[in-house]
Specification:
The protein has 6 helices and 6 strands. It is α/β, with parallel strands linked by helices. The chain has one domain: 3-Layer(aba) Sandwich (Rossmann fold), CATH 3.40.50. The chain has a 6-stranded mixed sheet, sandwiched between helices.
Amino acid sequence: MTAPNWPDFYFARHGETAWNREQRYQGSMDIPLNAVGQKQADANGILLRQMLADDGVDPASLNWFVSPLGRAVETMDRMRAAFDVRLPDVIVDQRLIEISFGTLEGRLHAEINREMAIAPGEREASYWHFRPERGENYDDVAKRLVDFAKVLTQHAVVVAHGGVLRVLRHLVEGADHGTVVNWPPPQGVIAHFAKGTMTLHAATNTWGDIA
């Protein structure tokens, strides 16, 4: 599944939460940033400001998209605080919400029976299609993001989640299912998607756990 003509854009995963640190399935639960996550978001704002300046991009000319979950909204707000110009209003887009783990949300990765879910690093490519009870699979997220691509504009800023970033690697870069379902999306970085390739730019030395 691909979306044609993906523009260049900047993506940040939300900062760390207590559930990230504890390695709990978080998904669509609205868990706030912890102190580390707030620092990551602040640092990402400074990094993004410098990246836009280096690329000759006017931040006031961009669309700023965010997931509706509070950890993403706070990350976006903290990032925007690094700018000393008036920015357009943030666009909250439901299609950017994290993948739902259904009845698994709130449970530790270590608690889950292998027949119910498998933690990243041990997944087969077929995990792309695994849907927990009352949850989603990555293909569901891909359909949402292909639809979101219709409104994504050149050099836009997107703040969302690790599962969303996994799926974007597949849709934009063409990374295979087995690679993306096992990849741990980092926190405290900006992912720049340009010409069909993702480049990670680090804001801090803190790399978060998986979503």
